[in-house]
Design the sequence.
């Protein structure tokens, strides 16, 4: 206890951590809503919403997997050169030379597969709980867009090791894009940065995978979570009258 | 009070004019930036390998023989009607086909499309025949094929 006192009574601690907040109900609520880290959570939830069977925590799990992906992705970026000459050798280096390279690379890969699966399971849960009914229809649409972004992120990341699977997967996929009437060839040219799956294609997919798609995904997640809070959890006070009208009729 | 009544919705006030002009200007800028960005994204110079490649002299190809250039993804075939060159890229989804000598057919390993020596689809999911390519004689008398220039099906060359 003396150690704890020493830690919390010194000047450095008191300059960083706010002091002297009285434990009133109002202050407990404000502590969450005014906190930069905590404000996305509601200040109070009903106990039954925290149960496993209400959401199976699938949305939260997919977000945690996203954090794992971002962190392992950033770490992997430090050793990866997006060049057709070097990419494959960099992956071999990660597998055989770099300390814990295998672990981090595999963690990234498994988290990617896991996120696609968990996001899909989350959509199934929302569907079978009818949680897409008004006022939540727009959030369902946002969720579908998020799932498409997740798939695109998987697809762009798949090219980066520049192995046979990657090369032919992208060749076939971009050839499929050519089937779009009218603009198909143009879209393929833009995606690949040329006519062949080469250096330009690898660089474009790298920028898509590491910068553009994650940014769009983060904006989408912000809208998605905002709508979850605004529409209220099912059975809570601020849901729209649709559920009430269902019950009353 | 009568002045307020006169200001109805269809009247073009100075404020509305200026706001509208400003909004139109912003719209022009936005459209221009969009076009600029779209233009930026299309590469103007490509550092891709050249599509024209040179093979053997025409006399080195026997009647009925199929020469495969794996690196350039093309076949050169000599039939009684003359020479023709075809792309070895399968028209289904872009895998590279291979000539099967015993069946005299071109087969794709990915999804099983089969083509005859004229490139026509015999079976499988390929939607159209193999592309026919432009051929000519190079300056040293050898066959030159350009995989980027397509010619209509049935165009044979007398080299």
Sequence:
């Amino acid at each position: 206890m003396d150690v704890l006192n020493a830690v919390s009574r010194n000047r450095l601690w008191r300059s960083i951590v706010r002091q002297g907040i009285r434990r009133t109900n109002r202050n407990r609520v404000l502590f969450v809503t005014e906190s930069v880290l905590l404000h996305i959570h509601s200040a109070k939830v009903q106990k039954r919403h925290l149960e496993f069977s209400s959401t199976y925590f699938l949305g939260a799990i997919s977000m945690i997997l996203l954090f794992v992906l971002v962190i392992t992705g950033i770490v992997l970026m430090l050793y990866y050169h997006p060049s057709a000459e070097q990419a494959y050798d960099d992956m071999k280096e990660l597998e055989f030379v770099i300390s814990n390279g295998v672990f981090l690379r595999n963690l990234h890969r498994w988290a990617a597969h896991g996120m696609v699966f968990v996001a899909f399971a989350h959509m199934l849960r929302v569907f079978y709980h009818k949680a897409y009914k008004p006022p939540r229809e727009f959030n369902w649409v946002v969720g579908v867009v998020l799932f498409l972004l997740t798939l695109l992120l998987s697809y762009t990341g798949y090219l980066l090791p520049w192995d046979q699977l990657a090369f032919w997967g992208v060749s076939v996929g971009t050839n499929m894009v050519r089937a779009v009437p009218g603009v198909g060839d143009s879209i393929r040219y833009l995606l690949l940065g040329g006519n062949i799956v080469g250096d330009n294609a690898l660089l474009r997919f790298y920028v898509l995978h590491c910068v553009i798609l994650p940014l769009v995904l983060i904006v989408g997640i912000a809208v998605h979570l905002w709508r979850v809070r605004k529409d209220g959890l099912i059975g809570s006070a601020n849901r729209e009258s649709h559920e009430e009208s269902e019950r009353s009729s | 009070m009568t002045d307020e009544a006169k200001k109805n919705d269809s009247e073009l006030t100075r404020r509305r004019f200026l706001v509208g002009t400003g909004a139109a200007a912003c719209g022009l800028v936005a459209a221009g930036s969009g076009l600029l960005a779209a233009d930026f994204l299309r590469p103007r110079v490509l550092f891709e390998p050249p599509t024209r490649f040179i093979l053997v002299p025409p006399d080195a190809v026997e009647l009925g023989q199929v020469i495969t250039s794996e690196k350039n993804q093309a076949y050169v075939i000599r039939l009684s009607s003359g020479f023709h060159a075809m792309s070895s890229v399968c028209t289904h989804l872009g895998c590279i086909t291979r000539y099967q000598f015993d069946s005299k057919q071109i087969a794709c390993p990915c999804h099983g499309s089969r083509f005859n020596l004229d490139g026509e689809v015999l079976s499988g999911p390929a939607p159209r025949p193999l592309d026919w390519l432009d051929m000519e004689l190079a300056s040293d008398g050898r066959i030159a094929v350009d995989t980027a220039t397509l010619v209509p099906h049935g165009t044979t060359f007398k080299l």
